[in-house]
Amino acid sequence: MKLKGIFSKFFLMALFFIGCSVQLFAQQNESEAISSILQVQQYDRAIHIMAMLLIGFGFLMVFVKKYGRSALTATFLLVSISLPIYLSIKTLGIFEAKGEIEQFILAEFSAASLLIAAGAILGRIKIFQYIILGLLFVPFYILNELIVVEDYFQIVGKVADTGGSIVIHAFGALFGIAAAVSLTTKKDMEIPIQSDATTDKYSVLGSMVLWVFWPSFCAALVPADAIPHTIVNVFIALCGSTLATYIASVSIRGKVSIADIANAALAGGVAIGATCDFASHGQAMVIGAIAGTISTVGFAKLQDKQQKFHKIIDTCGVSNLHGIPGIFGGLAAIVVVKGLDIPAQLKGIAITVVLALVAGLLTGKIVSLFGKPKEIYNDFTEFHDAE
Amino acid sequence: MKLKGIFSKFFLMALFFIGCSVQLFAQQNESEAISSILQVQQYDRAIHIMAMLLIGFGFLMVFVKKYGRSALTATFLLVSISLPIYLSIKTLGIFEAKGEIEQFILAEFSAASLLIAAGAILGRIKIFQYIILGLLFVPFYILNELIVVEDYFQIVGKVADTGGSIVIHAFGALFGIAAAVSLTTKKDMEIPIQSDATTDKYSVLGSMVLWVFWPSFCAALVPADAIPHTIVNVFIALCGSTLATYIASVSIRGKVSIADIANAALAGGVAIGATCDFASHGQAMVIGAIAGTISTVGFAKLQDKQQKFHKIIDTCGVSNLHGIPGIFGGLAAIVVVKGLDIPAQLKGIAITVVLALVAGLLTGKIVSLFGKPKEIYNDFTEFHDAE
Amino acid sequence: MKLKGIFSKFFLMALFFIGCSVQLFAQQNESEAISSILQVQQYDRAIHIMAMLLIGFGFLMVFVKKYGRSALTATFLLVSISLPIYLSIKTLGIFEAKGEIEQFILAEFSAASLLIAAGAILGRIKIFQYIILGLLFVPFYILNELIVVEDYFQIVGKVADTGGSIVIHAFGALFGIAAAVSLTTKKDMEIPIQSDATTDKYSVLGSMVLWVFWPSFCAALVPADAIPHTIVNVFIALCGSTLATYIASVSIRGKVSIADIANAALAGGVAIGATCDFASHGQAMVIGAIAGTISTVGFAKLQDKQQKFHKIIDTCGVSNLHGIPGIFGGLAAIVVVKGLDIPAQLKGIAITVVLALVAGLLTGKIVSLFGKPKEIYNDFTEFHDAE
Predict the structure, then answer these.
(1) What average pLDDT does range B204-216 have in this prediction?
(2) Which one, out of A64, A342, A358, C282, has a CA that is 20 to 30 A from the CA of A76?
(3) Reported ipTM
(4) pTM of the shown model
């Protein structure tokens, strides 16, 4: 109850802060005059990404049987808190000014990374703790973006990561895993994560929305003349991972797991991110197929071990879908991208990994101060009319 | 049975009428030569709006437990009757000629308003009565559009309502509320409107589709250079209303209501409509937050009172989502839009309110002549294989 | 078990083949320089079509109660196998070079046709047999495309079929029906195909996704200046078929069947394909209304007879949704398209019908060699955790 009071004040302050700095943002932008036609074309991709964030990630996480209302509400809140915070911070005057839609797409990228992080701890925190998670995540995300993508401190060099394999997917997944360390109790270990025939299908719905719009995510900020090739690459990588996932799932498990299909089929999209505008279609196929295979192996073999030996529960398996395939994608650039600054690429990956783990641990600790739901993976503790 | 016979003839006539006048429409358009590239860009927004109409509104209304098949069929029919009727009337030669896509987007706006109106009486009329509702609604909608938006009779002046807070949302909601007066019996008052865990999630799906594509709705007919700012405004307003809805829902009810989240989270989109191309991002945030709050208060506090004291059942709570936030959005323009013709804005709102109420009452009376379902909120009276 | 081994090898070979030839494809494309801006606009339609393929067709097929996981997985696999195969074959050097997105859209068309074919036998083959179906289907599809659309052998002439009424819809449906002959046993005849309230709604979700994005399918490769008229035509045809479906369903059955609504409402989109860029809006309305009516008659009257007298089970009723309306659409061009080469149009239809039936029979035979599921229309034989 006390914490709730603290939270309320904290939150109102945050809202105020958002309001003010967004206002500031508006004033800054008036002087810009970036070609509207190109921005309208960018906008189409921005809206595709938004479909991925809300409908895609939201429904993908509905698979947890009795936690559907919470997962969808958490998605709404994570998106709604991260976008304005990101826009506010990026327009404080420290950073380079950008077109409104470009800036907005970068904000969507941070929301995507946050949703991935949240997937690791889904169901084991209270609803308002997702808001706190968002408030804490975004500044760390921006810091990593600053260091690795913009090379602000000139310590990295040029990293190939157009579609965010490293800075969006791997960062989010590792942040989430690290946060899970503080947010998982011994008791949590004994409670199974269940799905049923209806929630499974919602999950595939989310997965399909992500699959369909993934090329817009990767090509969002690619120059117009490189868009066609990039898009076809992403689709081919997704075809590769989908086929590989089916084969791997049957081969390893004997029967197909629909959770493998819903998740690992997307690993091609995760892995192609770093090289989506450089790879040939054949390379895209191979990257996708490898990513689908290792992701499925992760879901089928590693997830249980992770829980047993590392005492970490990764609710949505984000380490298998976004973590490992993201790093693999970043490394694939070494083979694929001609003239790549290989030390920079490796430094970029290393910094992202370290920063994500440290920031995640710290954030997990802070979020854990705000309590713990009475019953995990369950809507009824916080929702009216939930059975 | 007799009424069904009358209906059939009526309908065939209507179909004929549509066919003929749409034909006429086609001939007229041949002489136009509006830039195809801009129209193709408009088309992308037109299709986003269509996703909102069918999938968004359709699934948002699925929350009524045993009425899902009916709600989806009604959505299909309301869209399919209103688009051709609107296009037919607008090309009778009285009105200014427009580009085909622009004309079509205006038709989609009328369908949106009609779906809002239908939300108020959902479940308490027979399926074919939705068609009659559509046939009667569209001419009234066009009349209001003519008076308030186009100022055809030169009695209003220039009203700020780019995204239709007033003429689409408030008009539809008040029309529906007024129609509900004639279409709600005493017996209806005793029958609860129930949802369950699966239908709730369908409802959130509809809500998310509306949220994602809302910027395309508001920016549909905005000039290309104002689109980026408009779009970011709409998203920020939605972020504001989503956060505010969660806080208000918890604060008022103790626990979160998923129906609040699915509905009131959209109130920012409703309210920003009137000022979406004028507001700064900070103002958009504030408008969204206020709209989310008042909408949630409406769902949590007013809806029961409305039913008790005014004897009106508003099935989907459209007065709380579209009515009050729509009028609030129209009034917000007084603060936000520099150089606004304030008397015009107030006249526009007043005329819309009065016309919607009168037209709704009249339409409700006519629709009620065509009977009443044996059991309300239930598929089985009209659908095969419905349990 | 043995067949599974054979299959694995077969599949790895296929994957290799895809990889190689797609690689080849990439090298070829480098020399092309087609305007990127137009390709980006095409891309928006390409992604709409992808939404139709995965989410639209996928969920439309979820109506089979206990076969949802399989239907969605099959959709994933059918799309993922057909796109690379199509792209590989079309870039072997025999065919005319095209823009990357245009080529990709043509690949999506083949995937659409394949999904239609699969709809006829849905639930009566094993998951991996869908992959074999895809491998066999695509070359036949390309052959028909070569003969009828590109008139490679100069035996047909110019056929009007912009949106694929004939070469996509009718071809896929007839291929599927013919394949069903070999893939349906006497025992299958006795097993009912069941749906429930939840799966029905998933099916309508798929249907609505198809409805919304259908104009992008028809206008995908239409020149920019013809797009607005084409798009409005497709929407009007869909309005016509939706209204007609409701009337026909009530008139024939007494009550509405939600399966009629989910399916026959789309028949206007199927039928307008051949003439979508030529018809006037009035003609589009009439074509849509007729298509909706005959499709509903098919579902309500012909489907049972087909099963009884021809011993064919058409799981999704593709002959009623894609077969008959597709051929009707192709014939409608004779009335609608001025200066049409009528013999060419008839030859095009005839060749498509014959080729689809022969290829379907042959393919059905081959696919049947790979076995038969122990229990049809049921997830549990191949999926973990399926009830």
Answers:
(1) 98
(2) A358
(3) 0.93
(4) 0.95
